[in-house]
Design goal:
By secondary structure, the chain is α+β, with helices and mostly antiparallel strands. The protein has 4 helices and 6 strands; from the N terminus they run ααββαββββα. It has a 6-stranded antiparallel β-sheet with strand order 1-2-4-5-6-3. The protein is globular and about 45 Å long.
């Protein structure tokens, strides 16, 4: 299961670039743990040993999506993402994400991000569209005029 989830995770070029890896999965609770290894490109500023805030936010999004994917088995777009930065996030980072709701339309997950020393660096919450957002054939046909041309 862990191998398949990591393969799914690496389908995204951004996830490949970040280099994050799922290390633990609890299918029943939807809880996952991920690791974001140290890479110089992820640092926030020259001479800093802390991750860029955007990298931390992306890591929260990846972790939240992963835990909901465990429950839903689908890919889903992010609707909302909130990250509270509590202290500098010294790489490498780990994240624990838990699904709070995995409904037919909306999924919500909470994420805790920890530094190498185990200090809590950030808290995140993400919301996703868990229903298929692609238009159905009926949706497409409803915007086609009777003469067959789209409006």
């Amino acid at each position: 299961m862990l191998l398949k989830l990591n393969e799914f995770l690496l389908e995204s070029p951004l996830h490949q670039w970040l280099g994050c890896v799922l290390t633990e999965v609890d299918i029943v609770s939807g809880r996952v743990k991920l690791l974001l290894p140290f890479r110089r490109e992820l640092l926030g500023a020259a001479g800093s040993d802390s991750a860029h805030g955007g990298v931390v936010a992306a890591f929260v999004d990846v972790a939240a999506h992963a835990c909901l994917h465990v429950r839903t088995r689908i890919g889903m777009p992010t609707i909302d993402l909130r990250v509270d930065f509590l202290r500098p996030a010294t790489l490498p980072l780990s994240a624990t994400a838990v699904a709070r709701r995995a409904g037919r339309t909306i999924g919500v997950a909470d994420v805790e991000v920890f530094d190498q020393a185990g200090g809590l660096c950030a808290l995140g919450r993400a919301t996703y569209l868990t229903r298929d957002s692609r238009p159905s054939l009926a949706d497409v046909q409803s915007v086609v005029d009777t003469d067959g041309s789209a409006w």
